[in-house]
Amino acid sequence: LAGYNSEVQITKCFSTGDINGRDNIGGLIGANRYGEVTSCYSTAAVKGQSYTGGLIGSSEYCLLVDCYSAGNVTGENLTGGLIGWSELPDSFVIACFWDIESKYLA
């Protein structure tokens, strides 16, 4: 959906398919800065090297609410089922999950 999101609200969106790249690779957003993501999901299979996430590759100063990812995620460094890397405590994740039972993290 977006390679880079800065200060934009994304609501009620989804992605499917295969997503491959190097860094800042996510099923919905590659890099999310000061953005808000609400009621979104991804079932995409995501493959990257660093900052690789099932929904968002990297997140800084963001709000993520009521979202999930349910795709396979493969990465070498800073890889996560929902978010590859997040700036904490300045990012907030509320009522979100990665469906670990149906997919794998490698």
Tell me what the structure shows.
By secondary structure, the protein is mainly beta. The protein has strands at residues 2-6, 9-11, 14-15, 18-20, 23-26, 29-33, 36-38, 41-42, 45-47, 50-53, 56-60, 63-65, 68-69, 73-74, 77-80, 83-86, 92-94, 97-98.
Summed up:
This protein has no helices and 18 strands.
In total, the number of strands is: 18
Mean pLDDT: 93
Which shape, going by the Cα principal axes?
globular
Rg over C-alpha atoms, rounded to the nearest angstrom:
12 Å
Question: What's the helical proportion of residues?
Answer: under 10%
- Secondary structure class reads mainly beta
Number of continuous helical runs: 0
Largest sheet: 4 strands, parallel
The largest beta-sheet arranges its strands as: 1-6-11-16
Proportion of β residues? over 45%
Poorly predicted ranges: none
